[in-house]
Amino acid sequence: MSAALIAVVFALLLGHVFPSLPLLRRYDWFIGWLHWLGRQSGSDWPNKVGLLLAVGLPLLAVGAIQFFIDDVFYGLPAFVFALLALLYTWGPRDLDLDVENIIEARTPEARREAAQSLFHTGGEPVCEGPALVEAVFRCALWRWFGVLFWFLVAGAVGAIGYRLVSLSAQGEARRSLPAGQRGVARTALAVLDWPVAQLMTFAMALAADFDRVVSAWRDWHAAGGLRLDVGFLGAAARASVASELAEEDAYAVDGPAQASALLELRDAMSLVWRILLLWLGVLALLVLAGWAT
């Protein structure tokens, strides 16, 4: 657990020290692998078997490496391998930079173009406050917290497995899959995302307005939300950001200010960082508790 915490901190620091790092996070090899597998299997492979081969075989290779170097040279090669896996799967785009580009855009057209990076599933970006807040948290789940959670659970295998499944469900690799396998990939991603979104929502309640977040979470489920849908995360984020902006207006020197979409976007990004720091703080406490026992 301590090695995992150190790897996460190193990954965050290296990501800020080397801003060109996202350029190395390319998955052309995975897309090529999907194309090759599709040519070999044709339409005869069942959807679940096809996706299992597409994601499972690369994970088998990663797991074999992770297993054989686990006890080599005091675990240092295993630590380096896990760190490289986390660096590779984090993102792949820089969420901070994407949000900053939207805020600094001078024209509505430039803002919509910059906002496209937050709407990775396609479609026209919506530059309204609630939509941008939800998009930031959806991207945080896909780029940061999903990778982090499964890395803590299963090391390099967990991080790379989550990234490959997420690419198959909603990324560029999705277009390389048959239609039936896309549906299986979306279901697999929903299963992987559900516990992460729940933990993000709980951390949000601790880092922001607890009552607002819990109320939004409860109302979303009471309205009949689907079992594996993570829409409660966006609902809780919108309620939390709205509450924080209302408090800012209440304490403004010149009286209440009109909240804009960019203010909501700024507060959403700030809240994402607070949640990440809370996760790291809990992880650090678990490490200290392990050492104490």
Number of helical segments with 4 or more residues: 11
Overall spatial form: globular
How many DSSP-defined strands? 0
The biggest sheet, with number of strands, parallel, antiparallel or mixed sense and barrel status, is: none
| Proportion in helices | over 70%
Q: What is the total number of structural domains?
A: 1
Instruction: Classify the beta-strand content into a percent band.
Output: under 5%
Question: CA-to-CA gap between the ends?
Answer: 14 Å
SSE string: HHHHHHHHHHH
Low-confidence stretches: 250-259
Q: Mean pLDDT across all residues, rounded?
A: 85
The value of Rg in angstroms is 20 Å
Structural class: mainly alpha
InterPro entries: Beta-lactamase_Reg (IPR052966)
Transmembrane segments: 45-65, 72-91, 141-165, 271-292
Keywords: Membrane, Transmembrane, Transmembrane helix
Protein name: AmpE protein
